[in-house]
Amino acid sequence: PDETAQRWTLRRDGAPRRVGQHHRQRRRRGDDVDGDAAGAVGRSAYAASKAALVALARSWAAEQMPRGITVNVVAPAATETPMLTDPSRGAVAPKRPPLGRFIRPEEVAAAVAYFLSPEAGAVSGQQLVICGGSSL
Predict the structure, then answer these.
(1) Per the confidence metrics, is the pTM higher than 0.90?
(2) Catalytic residue among 19, 22, 31, 46
(3) Which of 135, 74, 70, 136 is nearest to 108 (CA)?
(4) What is the rounded distance in angstroms from the CA atom of residue 113 to the CA atom of residue 116?
(5) Residue 114 among the catalytic residues
(6) Model confidence over 39-51: pLDDT tens digits?
(7) What gap in Å lies between CA 35 and CA 61, rounded to an integer?
(8) How many Cβ atoms are within 10 Å of 49's Cβ, its own excluded?
(9) Could you say which residues of the chain have pLDDT below 70?
(10) How, if at all, do strands 31-35 and 70-76 pair?
């Protein structure tokens, strides 16, 4: 199958497994934070799978709230990781957001840490977009 089909299959089949793993690991006070990204021209299946994860996270949030489990999504734009400069990307250069730089991994980590903190105990079913202005 082509790369788009492989990504869709990974997201479709992987999400329920992740939920089961998270549920088993976090029976006392549980939280789940998923990652997400915006769509791009020519990548409709990828964008659809990401949107589906947001909807799925909102459903899980509603289902798990009575147990004290929160579920949120962190959606970073292009982030400074080795994947960004991987030669296998070919001629697809990552697009810098209006901020003028890529998102830093520690910025994403701080968002995840917030969602997992006691201060975010009442935050559930939300998506935090870390985009450097690219979604404006």
Answers:
(1) no
(2) 46
(3) 74
(4) 5
(5) no
(6) 566 778 888 888 8
(7) 15
(8) 21
(9) 1-41
(10) parallel
